[in-house]
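Researcher: Here's the sequence for the chain we discussed earlier.
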Amino acid sequence: MEKEYSFPFANIKIDYQRGVISSLTFQGEEMIEGEASFFILRLRDHDNNYHYLKSKDFSFVEFKDNQAFYHHEELDVTLRIENISNGLKWGIKVINHTSLLLEQVEIMSLGLHKDLMDEGGKGEIDIPYNEGARVTSM
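Model: Thanks. This is the structure I predict for it:
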């Protein structure tokens, strides 16, 4: 089930069944390289070993009321996508029934292939972690 969201300067296509962002266009130009997972979970076991699960590793259950539901063994994920005036508001809920510690949840990471602003391109990346940062070159 693929859904497209349109905004004045950008469009985003999301394939909920496969758990990926399949396209992100800005002013008609494709901005991502390949498909990007909705989310990546990092779990840690009692020996401090990391285990990573991507949205593609989960089974799609259903899409209902702007929420996508996913299941993987003893983990359930609800991804909420709300179309607001000039973008998408994302939220995630993880129910962990494993003995592993859910250490990190990464949501909507994209692999951009076009140049950023300081490299002659159009893009900037706003990173909301900690105090925030704006990236204009790599």
